[in-house]
Every structure is written in structure tokens, then in C-alpha cells.
Amino acid sequence: MAIPSFVDRVTVHVTGGNGGNGCASVHREKFKPLGGPDGGNGGDGGSIIVRVDPDLTTLVDYHRSSHRSATNGAQGKGDHQAGSKGGDVVLPVPDGTVISTPEGEVLADLVGPGAEFVAAAGGKGGLGNAALASSARKAPGFALLGEDGEERTVVLELKVVADIGLVGFPSAGKSSLVASISRARPKIADYPFTTLIPNLGVVVAGETTFTVADVPGLIEGASEGRGLGHDFLRHVERCAALIHVIDCATYEPGRDPLSDLDTIEAELTAHGGLEDRPRLVALNKVDVPDAREIAEMVTADLETRGMKVFSISTASHEGLDALKFAMAEVVTKRRAETAKPDTTRIIIRPQATGGVEFKVKKTPDGAWLVQGDKPERWVRQTDFTNAEATGYLADRLNRLGVEKALLEQGAVEGDGVMIGDGPNAVVFDFAPDVQAGAELLSRRGEDHRLEEDRPAAQRRKAKDEMYHARRSGEIEASPDLSEYGAGWTEDEVDLSPAESKAAQKAAERLARKQARELEAEQELRAELAFAAGQDIDIEAEDRK
């Protein structure tokens, strides 16, 4: 089956990229066993962005390729390295594309070059343990998981942005009129439903330039699905005015200009949304003698209805100039009424804050259901294989007031609690103020092991306290000339290799100093004895 060249309505499944997981890492460096957490954050996932491209006129690119996905964010790494972000995927669409849900809810109406809408947002990356560290939680042994990207189904519907819309029965001459007043060259033939797609033409009338679009022929019942026009009535919704192109030379029985006009107006009313558009009437094919007489007969009746009537011929170009300038007048008036201010106003609509962040209700089976954006998002970010991460989640829920709300509504220990009601819901037993972790005795989500002193540090503190006590006179000081001070032994000192080497050198220097002092003392005693006239046994002195 061949792919059509013009597609104005498609259904697209879009999926944003998942956020990368955070990294749980500890800095490692020589002689620094506790270097601190250095896990980086995960990267955000890419988003699906729908953006207007003025060079496009159809949605045919999405006719067969209807699934679009963005790339995922990368996982964080150690040494504070954040994961790379996922790449966004931009879906170019024609000007005038309306984005809605399959149920019909309008999400965005993209008009103007560069207008864009985020159809599926990428997931946020998870925080690494470096970002989770605090004064109370100095070395988190966990990180947060990245969030999943948004996934949804959207309907892209093209509504042609034109100033003038041409409506009428098949073979009334709409395509011929577009070809006569512009450089557009639509397909023209002498059989009904020649036009299968809307055609656009640019018309210049004096100093005014505007666009004209013709809609495939309408017949009675078009708004209910008959013929082709019901699929394209949406393309005249943006038009500033409508031109009724009426065939005055038709030979079909039961048809005349007035009945044709009433039929088309009934279909426009059934479609809805076009009641405020001004109407012009173009009585076509007046180059045929009988058609000219019919046009002259119905002109007065049409004018009594408040419509401007123009007798034209797309073959001989009769009356086309008057019709073009009438179109330009309507367009100019419409543009003046809907003129935009010179200054672009940026409208910021912040989300409401301060409301209820979660709801708690009891299910028929006696369990408890917790619903809310924050609790459900926190659950998706938690790695339940890590006891410390589970404790961190419990602390967050407690600070948010979930435990308090459950207790106030009558929840008791052991009751089942479910957070979220989707596929990612988590069910656990209610146990308020339970300690998390097998060996931790601290608060949930915290690790106080790093706050405890090592045995060597405790011994140093004790010796330091004793030293200051002796200095202050609280206890009697005793002379101590040992290498490490009073009461210290080499085996008790927890020294690094560099410190041990320095201590050994200091001990050798002390020993040499003591030997020199002893030798000098002996020489001094010998000199004193010689000066006093005492006999000195040189051999005995040498033996010493």
C-alpha cells in the first residue's frame, strides 16, 4: 500500500528517556581510608519535543513511523562525575498542528514558526551519595535511582492556517478559483471529488497578501461522514472568512444556488465553531449564458441575507479582481481586530504549593493506601535491595508526615501500607520508628560509624588529658625521659610507616646526644682530678 502524500491526522506514541541512576562511591586515596562520598548524579533522560517547522505541510512522516523514543541518561560515576544527559528528539510538524489526547483533550495548539510543546518529558536523574551527604549522614552507602521517562499517546491534527477558506459542492470551481487568483496549481478535472487534499494559494491584492485554502467538495451529510469533506472541515476553522463558491451552470436535478448555499451552511453549522466567520458568495461560471441569468436571478435574494455577492468566471477571469479586493478587505479587518501587542509578554504559571501533598485512605481489605506525587516519586527512586536506602525512604516519609497521618487514622503496627496504585506500587508492613539496617543503632538513613574514634586516637586523647592534668598540677608529675613519654610503649603507638621512620631517627639522635654528654662529663671529672693533684689511672679510665 502506497503512503499518501498528504496526511493531516496521525496518532503517535512518544516515550521520554529514563534518568540515569546515581552512583554510590567512596573516595579512595593513599593514607586516607575515609575519603568521603564522591558518587555523581545520574543524567536526565531526553524529552520528545514537537516543534513547528514552516517548511512542512503534512504529517506524512508519522504515518508509518508512529513510535518515537528519546535516549536515556547515563549513570553517575565516582570522583563526582555526573552522567551525561539523554538527547532530546524533536518532531517537526506543520504550522497549525493541534496536539491532543486520544480522548480529545487539547494539550497544545502550535501556531507560528518555532512554537513547541514537550509531548513526553524525560525522567530526572538520581542523586549520587555525594549529593545525599549531610552533617548527620556523612557517608551514605546508597544513591537514588533515576526516574522513568514519561510515556503517552498523542494525536497530531493539522489545521491549515489560511486567511480565506473556499467551501462548496464538488466541481463548483474552488480549485479553479485558487489557480486563477494565485500561482498554486491544484489538480483540476471535469469530474466530482477531483480535489482529495486541501490546496493553499498565496494571493496579492494591492498591499495585502493573504492565503486561500480550498476544501474538498462538501455534500449533504458531510458532517456525519459522507463524502470527503468531513475529514477536511477542520482546515477552515482558522480562516478569517469563508467564500461560498456556487456552481450556477450545474445540470443536476434539484440543485440551484440557494439550495446549495443552504446545504453547505447546514453542514458548517453541524461541524460547529464557524458561526462568527464573515461570508462572501462567489457565483461561478457566469461565462455560460444560462449560468449568468441564474446568477442575476438569485443575487437579490442573497443580498437580502446580508451577504456580499460576486459573479465570477474562473475561465474568463471576470469579476476576480473585485473578489480579491473584497477578500483583502475582510482579511485586513480581521487582522486589525486580532492584532498582537508589540511587546511579547512572558506568562509564567507556577504550580500551586502549600496544598495537601499526599492522601491516606483505607482500602476495603483493611490495608492503607497512600497517594501523592512526592511519596510515589520517592518510591520510584529507592533501591529496595539496599537497607540504608530503604531507611532513608522511611525517614523521608516520616518527615512528610505519612506515619503521623497513618497513626491518626487508626493504623497499627503490622497493617499493610501501599504507596501508589499503579504498576510501581510498593506494599510494606507498617512499623513506625523501626531502626533500619542490621548492625546500625542510629536513626534511619544515618551511619554514625564514622563519628567513632579509632583505638589509637582514643589512647592519644587519654595521654593528652594526663599531660594537661600534670601541667595544671592536678596530679604529681614524674620525670620521664622515655622516647614516647610517660607510660607509653612503642607497641601501643598506632603510627604510619612514615611516622615510625621519623620516630626511629629521633631515637637515634637522642642516643647519640646522651653518649656525647656522658663522654663530656667524664672528661670534666678527669680534668678536675688532675688539677687537684690526684693520681689518675689512665688504663682504668680507658677501660671505662
UniProtKB/TrEMBL annotation:
Organism in which the protein naturally occurs: Kribbella italica
Enzyme kind, highest EC tier: hydrolase
Principal place of residence: cytoplasm
Localization of this protein: Cytoplasm
Family per record: Belongs to the TRAFAC class OBG-HflX-like GTPase superfamily. OBG GTPase family.
Enzyme Commission numbers on file: 3.6.5.-
Residue span of region Disordered: 63-90, 443-507
Pfam families in the cross-refs: DUF1967, GTP1_OBG, MMR_HSR1
Protein name: GTPase Obg
Obg domain location: 4-161
Quaternary structure and partners: Monomer.
Record: residues binding Mg(2+): 175, 195
Taxonomy, superkingdom: Bacteria
Gene Ontology cellular component list: cytoplasm
